[in-house]
């Protein structure tokens, strides 16, 4: 059946600010859906309150509403536009909950809006755990023994019947909120109480914990004709008991027998058909017993695009959200073409001739004192994906993508050798358990012990053991006599030159030169959905070490845009927004655009955003090899946050052109000594400061600077390890802490301006002229990280005298730093005097916010300046300045219940929302202004 032509206008509901458990993978899905529907000539209206994402940009939808995700906002949209249908499956649990609420209120019915892509009854049955369990019993799909408790007493009775360990899962929550495994009856009461409180309907499901069972996911798509395709099988490296969002996952499934996989497929299709008659995406999770029987038990089914859909889309090259939205408007799978080959049908199931490994990225260091164990409740803030020809290569590449100062899995001198600490880590999984599995095998702890403590399948353990055996063979040689075969094997198994250099006791550059001499070169393979049986038309590549290169180089002028790697606190989706706009602007200027990034959740790694996508770690060796292959005009580093910026020095050293602001200017802004001299020369005030390398020096310097002091390591993002100290004891303790944890040899001490007002300015500069795109005033006093502050655009009570100083200083610094592109400067204002805290000559966290508030494509303009295509005076700036826009920080504290909710110079928020107000009498503004001192910590 072709598409339903009566649908001319669709409303897509987004997922709101980024929180743990619901991140930018839903923005990716929503952006894809919007593009997919617009291809069909359908008008797309979008509602989402998140300003940091490309999803809420004019390039994505016809009408964008940056408004709270509430029924009132929906009613306003329906009054303004003739909407035929709403697609609520692209915005995670938030969008679904809002759609159900509007349905219950009769809003869709009142305005004649059809709900497409999902069946509300299907959602109800999958969220109501008891009804779902009964349905599974009817169709003969086994589940773990479980029961529903609507009261504390019922919960106690169930626990008595089942015995421990148990899982408690609140109904209708996201990212495993409130879920826990209980081993000890003493802990049960408190966790049961918490689960009942967190569930919006005060109900929990208690099930017998299937600890140690293997966990799998299948991603499915179904059309209205009941055709079903399995897009991807995903195996969790971690066993049951760890939330899939916190598990290392592998696709395709590695340790599943074919007969069990067929049974699982049949079960998934039967489950999908039983819950309702809807067309779209679906994710089904299973547990499999770790014995010869391979018994299968269903865990849950999500009849919508899920967190794993973005991963499955990137892993297979099959854009699930894009196809799901076409199915929602009536198409059948056999009527749609495969988006990568363009010749085969979308009914054709993807086949992979490579392996992908996803590793989550955590930020526990932002939440001191929290329980760092991972379990049923998701705690990771982002993820990376590595693609390789083998599990080992994909695993190493994923480790290289994480940006946690590791060069891969091991072989970098950072192993843990304390047996008791390793055994404790294996039993209490945290962010580093993968590395400790490697350390355990290397130390000689028996496989049986490792398996008993982790329940990680022996196949995976043997793969890691094989890497350690390879390292021992390499260590017997030195650079001069290592055999070519051994070097080739190391590269095929994903070892970075840095790791090989560590094993051979030489320099990374020497290994690179040696393997180049040997003819061992990185080649690039296509991600093609069909194991190379058909030609792929979309240039989406990963690297490996073989002989045939599938990435042909054109003779067009090219530009490389470096992405920002995994989402984390301090560097999130706002940099992805900038990267996408950078790519689009470079395309407009006639460049062939090349994107390098490893984050599967985002739009920058969509296969048709840039002209060529290299899904690779943002890691020096990979970037250098791609640049040598493609020979671009230059590289854009100022859009990918600190990740891309950190690579500027290497690019400079290797003679690769940095487009826009030069490396010297970037370094000048980061080097506190040089930057302060520049400020002094220009009579620009800044807080008294000094640089120290030890606690003794810090104490000595504090006598001159005076307390309170702001203490921080140099070259960090998101205020990492930044703290305000008020006496010598605290100063000494924190300096020692930084040196031990970060190995930082340069620590900055600034006199802290207590009670100051904080503000920041973003500007575009072409080296000569400067245009200030926006000045934002923070509501909280100085001392709270800018990412955690409510901020108002334009400022709400800075007088003309202060504003003039801010404008003059911004223009002066931008020109003095020879900025070409974007710059962000942060200020503290005390007694009407403006002090400069820092300058960042790159896209900042606030640029997307200002671009949305003023409805101007500032990153597009800045990129054209970086490329030398335009000067600042060539643009006709016309910001829409009505009322005020407020940036609202959003936290994920419910995932860390034991952490104090105090704020300080280290950033803790995971996302942000935007709120527009007409004037300062707005009750929203008066409320947050009255609470501005509430969470300030020293």
TrEMBL record:
EC number(s) stated in the UniProt entry for this protein: 6.3.5.5
Molecular function (Gene Ontology), one example: metal ion binding
Domain annotation ATP-grasp: ranges: 133-329, 676-867
Top-level taxon in the UniProt lineage: Bacteria
Pfam family of the protein (one): CPSase_L_D2
UniProt-listed InterPro entries: ATP-grasp (IPR011761), ATP_grasp_subdomain_1 (IPR013815), CarbamoylP_synth_lsu_oligo_sf (IPR036897), CPAse_ATP-bd (IPR005479), CPSase_dom (IPR005483), CPSase_lsu (IPR006275), CPSase_lsu_oligo (IPR005480), CPSase_preATP-grasp (IPR058047)
Keyword Phosphoprotein in record: no
GO biological process, one term: glutamine metabolic process
Catalytic reactions on record: hydrogencarbonate + L-glutamine + 2 ATP + H2O = carbamoyl phosphate + L-glutamate + 2 ADP + phosphate + 2 H(+); hydrogencarbonate + NH4(+) + 2 ATP = carbamoyl phosphate + 2 ADP + phosphate + 2 H(+)
Assembly information from the UniProt record: Composed of two chains; the small (or glutamine) chain promotes the hydrolysis of glutamine to ammonia, which is used by the large (or ammonia) chain to synthesize carbamoyl phosphate. Tetramer of heterodimers (alpha,beta)4.
Similarity comment: family membership: Belongs to the CarB family.
Record's protein name: Carbamoyl-phosphate synthase large subunit
Organism: Fluviicola chungangensis
Gene from which the chain derives: carB
